[in-house]
Sequence to fold (441 residues):
Amino acid sequence: MKKNFRLYIGLAILGLVSSCKPEIDAPTFSKGTADFSKYVAIGNSLTSGYADNGLYLEGQKVAFPNLMAEQMKNVGGGEFTSPFFPADKANGSGYIMLESLVDGNPVMKPVTTDLAIRGTNPDGKPLYIKYTDPIQNLGVPGMRLDMAFANGLGTVKGNPYFERLLPDNTPATMTYFQYAAGHDYTFFSFWLGNNDVLGYAMNGAVSTVNSPTGPVEDPTKNLTSLPLFTQLYTNFVTTLTAKGQKGVVATIPDVTAVPFLNTVTTARLNAGVEAASQGAFKNVIIKTKTGVRAATAKDLFPLTFNTAALGKPNTIGPGYGISPANPIEDHNVLDEAEVAQVSARVNEFNNVIKQVAESKGVAVADVHAFLNKVKGGYVYNGIGISSAFITGNAFSLDGVHLTPMGNAIVANLFIDAINKQYNASIPKVDISLYRGVKYPN
Fold:
C-alpha cells in the first residue's frame, strides 16, 4: 500500500509539472508607424545586386532590398519584383570568378557564357535584354545623384542598365529621377551618392581618361560639388516624401573602407620592388598633383593596379614606378592629400544626408559608421567580417560591391534603422544563410 501511495504521489507531481510547462509564444512583428505594402528601392549598383564586377542573376537575387522585402512580408509588405535576367542568360553582363589560388595569390577568370546581351550601341558598348514589366527594385549600376537628373541616360547611348528598364518609345528626356519618383509606393529605400565620389577616387582623383586624342573628361569620374549634391539630394528626398510616404536613406561609405583601395599597399609594392631588384630599389615612386616622390603608407593604390609592370620599361622609359623619371601615374594612386580631399567630401555629403533625413522624418542607415567599424575586423552574429579582400566575407571580388553575406548584413543595417525610426519590429536576416566569396572547388 505504501508503495502504491508513493506511486500516486509521483503521478500527481508529474501532472502538476506538466500543467505548469511554460508556453513559448511565436514572435510577433509590427509595422509600427510605416506602411510597407508598396516598397520600392532606389539606388545604384549596390541596390541592384551588382557583384564580382558584373550584374548577374545570383547577385540580383540576393540584393539587399530583395532580402529586406522578404522580411517586410512579416509586417504587411507586398510583392517585390526585380528585373532579373532570365535563367538561360543568368550570367547577365558577365562577371569575374575566383579560378584558383597560386601561392596564396588569387587568379581571376572572366565568365563570358550565357550573357544577357542583345546587341551593341553605336559606340560598340553592350545593350542588355530588356525588362520593361513593373518592378520595385529600381537599382541601376553606375547611377550617380547628378546623373539621376540628366537627359539621355535612358537611351542606347546612355546607361545600358537604365536603358533595359525602359520601353523602346521612351522619350530621351526621361530622367532616372522622374522614373523612380513616378512609381506607386508607400515606402522607399534610397541609396545614391556613392558614385559621386567613388568614380573619382578609384581613378586616383582624376576626372579624365585617356583616349587616342589625349585625356578627355569622363562624367562618371567627376567629384560632385557640395552645393550641387545638397540641391539634388534635397530635391529627390523631398519629392519622394511629398505625399507623406516614409522611407530609409543610407550614408556613403568611406572609400578607404573597401578592399579596392586597401589591398594593394605601399609596403607590398616596396617589398616586391626590393625583391625583384635584389635590393637595388626599395621604394615605389608616384606622381602627385604637386610633384614626384616616394610613396608612403598613406597613399592608396587600386586593386586593379598592375604590379607586374613595376620596374619594367614602358613608353615613358625604363624602370616604371621605381624611377623619378617614370613614376606611377597620378590616376593609378590616391595619394595622401587626395585621400583627405575625398574623405572630407564624403563627410560633407553624409552631413547633408542626415540633415535632409531629419527634416523629412525618414530613417538613416549609417553604412559609413558601420563599415569603418568593420574595416579592421568585426564579429557579426558569431561570423568574422572585415574589409580584407576575399577573406573578409563582406565584399565581392571587385573589392567594392557586396557578397551575398554582405548584402544580408547591409539589409540588417537598413532594418535596424527602420525599426528604430518607425517603432517597427521587422525581423532581421540570418546572415549565416548567405555566402561570402565563392572559393574554387
Notes: The two ends are 71 Å apart (CA to CA). The chain is about 30% helix and 15% strand. The first strand starts at residue 39 and ends at 43. The CA atoms of residues 47 and 139 lie 5 Å apart.
